[in-house]
Amino acid sequence: MNSALYLDQAHHFPREFAWGVATSAFQIEGAAQADGKGPSIWDTFCKVPGAIADASDGTVACEHYQRWESDLDIVANLGVNAYRFSVSWPRVRPGGAGAWNAQGLDFYERLVDGLLARGVAPYLTLNHWDLPQELQDQGGWANRDTVHRFVEYALGVHDRLGDRVASIATHNEPWVMAMLGHEIGNFAPGVKNRAIAAQVAHHLLLSHGLAVQALRAEGCKADLGIVLNLSPTQPATNAPEDQARTVLEDGRLVRWYMDPLFKGSYPADVMNHLGEDAPTVEAGDMAAIQTPIDFLGVNYYTRTVISAAGPWDVKQGGLELSDMGWEIYPEGLTQLLMRLHQDYSLPPMYVTENGGAFKDELHNGRVHDLARVKYIKEHIGAVAEAMRQGVKMGGYMVWSLLDNFEWASGYEKRFGIVHVDYASQQRTLKDSALWYRNFLQRQKAASLAAVSTGD
Ligand code: FCB
Q1: What is the mean pLDDT of residues 165-194?
Q2: Pairing state of beta strands 418-421 and 426-429?
Q3: Where would you tag: which of 158, 277, 304, 327 has the fewest CB atoms within 10 A of its CB?
Q4: pLDDT in tens, 367-397
């Protein structure tokens, strides 16, 4: 398949398709202690020596908390009709339980109203990893009580913003919080324990289901869903060991989340593999997790190649790599969307994150990030191809609006279509932003033409 070519053939997406850019609170806001915000597990984790590649943290980040208005002007200027952002739980309820922080809620209210005033639909994520530290001190996501605190948090945010946002996603990438946060331990809170990771994954899914139920009971009008990081898993060779291992890793990455959400049970092979480390599941949990949702968010960056012998060297794949060292594999996005569509009965899917880190250089007010232009163009082409094959897609969002704090990689990796000079906080549209704006203008013109010809 040549997805780039397919895109060039004047393909036009449905008029109501959501075109967006995405960010998350901890990665851009800064203002870590301003206006009553409490500490999150990422504020704590950044202080662990060696945890962050450049020893940085989120204290200042992109100063979006102060610069949100001009940042929203940039968003509007791109011509997108959707903006995906997250609410910082410790900014609106500093201890995770107890008192709410009016100044924090006011900030998100201004942000949402600012988006609406600019004609951009707000796509809100409740949990993009920044759990209040006080809840972590009581066991965090490993503690079942956190599930109930999350439901309260969802209701509190809904109370203030629910009437104005287009969409609410409960969690961003539960696999990352469970696996990187609690099994591998290279992300906050830095736990390294497989049994805890499995319990955390279960509590995240359970809190998702219970929050969706509670929001529905409140008459929530926004679309409700969850965002998963998914990828096609492929064996490094045809050797039976590699193939068997690939099935298991697909189980841990994809089916462990998709099966409970859409089939109501955990995959038996992964349960067997976990053995004594399998999570405690109480009566009623699986039914709650399977509560119907309005959309599934899919974050896609690369494929996953599995070798039974140990970590696979990406250089063997012969594909171009991004600055994260991730393989660039747009056809994997079509494969993934097709597979999800075939294996599950799904609501519309959105690509809620897709993009690349590259070594950008700012010269005379320009960043010629042609590798990123190619990346985004080919991945949009891959979405178009899945749609052509019958997959129902609701939107596509670029990660990210701005260069930002890339977790354990700190500020060394740049994902933005808008460059940030961290010393001056100056924003500069990269060529990828200019390309996206132009692409969206052409999409709009094509839908207007389609309306006038009755197409
Ligand atoms: C995803 C995260 C997002 C960003 C991208 C590069 O896993 O959701 O915050 O860091 O990766």
Answers
A1: 98
A2: antiparallel
A3: 277
A4: 999 999 999 999 999 999 999 999 999 999 9
Give pLDDT, residue 7: 64
Choose the residue to mutate in 86, 324, 399 for probing ligand 1, maximizing ligand atoms within 8 Å of C-beta.
Answer: 399
- The tens digit of pLDDT for each residue in 407-428 reads 999 999 999 999 999 999 999 9
Average of pLDDT values for 136-163?
98
Residue 320 structure tokens: 């171009």
| Crossing angle of helices 145-161 and 102-117, rounded to 10° | 50
SS3 421: strand
Which helix (DSSP H) or strand (DSSP E) does residue 206 occupy?
Answer: helix 194-217
Report, as an integer, the average pLDDT of 16-40: 98
CA of 181 to the centre of ligand 1 (A): 13
Q: In ligand 1, which atom is closest to the CA atom of 176?
A: 7
Residues with CB under 6 A from ligand 1: 24, 27, 172-173, 176, 229, 299, 353, 399, 406-407, 415
Q: How far is the CA of 270 from the centre of ligand 1 (A)?
A: 25
Cβ count near 17 (within 10 Å):
18
Count CB neighbours of 178 within 10 A: 29
**Alpha-carbon separation of residue 91 from 38, 130, 146 (angstroms):** 6, 10, 17
User: What's the confidence (pLDDT) of residue 309?
Assistant: 94
Tokens representing 94 are 């500093």
Distance 406 CA to ligand 1 centre (A): 7
What per-residue string of b and e applies to 50-62 under the rule 16 or more CB within 10 Å gives b? Answer: ebbeeebbbebbb
